[in-house]
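Try this one yourself first.
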């Protein structure tokens, strides 16, 4: 091989190495998904949203899933794991999850998929310009709590005593509890509320016994990761007690709960993927406005109504967005 030919071959090899280097160094975005309960339908909706944006899990994006499985004290531990994995963005599924993520990192962008008023809880400074490192979507749960109580009373006009299942241990500051939010509406409707507090999975049996002891005529189940994680136990108790129950998510109605009024969570989690995409492309959470849900659904399970022997008011049934027969 002549000296000239050798030099040409060497130059081509060096050029090929330089051209390949950027591809070899390309970083696949890594998303942390922090959940208190790990509802599979919502995870799949988020994945679907990413697929619609042309992301392919394991190829063009990596998702690190972490669930506290209803044990909210584990959220901070999981958030710390995601920070150590150096994720590019964290998707948090509840107020508790967002607070844990913010405590673990003040710099990693956080996209909250659905929670109550983020201004009152101190998560953002305004809906238009959130500030800080968190943004996405609020479900305005206090207003929904009153609406659920109204629908329950309209569906069952003779009900006067309603038990409220809720978790006072949820780390939400600056807002009233689910019970106090419902009390004003209850007074206007002539309803007496009974507080059923659950701080861990061990509290549910006592709460159920208290509801029976006080002869509750209906049940309101508030949104919370612990409550969502114990959803099967709650549905079984309501069925066994023949107790009409209003839930905060349609997933529980699909499992056999009676009725729910809530945002369309599949839509919320698909839309969360849009914000993740914007952040990965350089947008700052502080500049992305917090959205409010546009789709709400009243879902009724007539099979459950028949099972527990209740008849839902025709007016409410006619307004249902979806009826499970």
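Now uncover the answer:
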């Amino acid at each position: 091989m002549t000296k000239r030919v050798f030099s040409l071959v060497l130059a081509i090899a060096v050029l090929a190495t330089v051209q390949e280097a950027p591809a070899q160094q390309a970083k696949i975005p890594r998303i942390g998904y922090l959940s208190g309960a790990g509802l599979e339908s919502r995870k799949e909706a988020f994945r679907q949203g990413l697929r619609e944006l042309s992301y392919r899990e394991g190829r063009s994006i990596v998702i690190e899933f972490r669930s506290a499985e209803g044990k909210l004290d584990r959220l901070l531990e999981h958030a710390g794991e995601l920070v150590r994995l150096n994720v590019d963005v964290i998707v948090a599924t509840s107020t508790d999850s967002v607070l844990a993520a913010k405590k673990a990192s003040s710099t990693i962008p956080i996209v909250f998929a659905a929670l109550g008023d983020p201004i009152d809880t101190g998560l953002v400074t305004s809906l238009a310009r959130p500030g800080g490192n968190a943004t996405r979507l609020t479900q305005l749960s206090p207003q929904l709590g009153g609406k659920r109580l109204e629908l329950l009373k309209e569906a069952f006009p003779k009900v006067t005593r309603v038990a409220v299942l809720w978790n006072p241990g949820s780390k939400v500051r600056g807002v009233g509890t689910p019970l106090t939010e419902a009390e004003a509406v209850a007074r206007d409707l002539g309803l007496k509320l009974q507080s059923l507090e659950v701080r861990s999975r061990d509290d549910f049996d006592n709460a159920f016994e208290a509801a029976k002891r006080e002869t509750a005529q209906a049940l309101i189940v508030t949104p919370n990761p612990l409550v969502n994680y114990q959803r099967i136990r709650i549905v079984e108790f309501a069925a066994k007690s023949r107790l009409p129950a209003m839930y905060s998510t349609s997933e529980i109605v699909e499992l056999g709960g009676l009725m729910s009024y809530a945002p369309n969570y599949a839509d919320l989690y698909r839309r969360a993927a849009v914000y993740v995409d914007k952040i990965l492309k350089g947008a700052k959470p502080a500049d992305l406005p917090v959205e409010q849900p546009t789709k709400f659904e009243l879902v009724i399970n007539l099979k459950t109504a028949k099972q527990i022997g209740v008849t839902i008011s025709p007016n409410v049934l006619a307004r249902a967005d979806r009826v499970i027969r």
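Discussion: The longest strand covers residues 30-35. The chain is about 45% helix and 20% strand.
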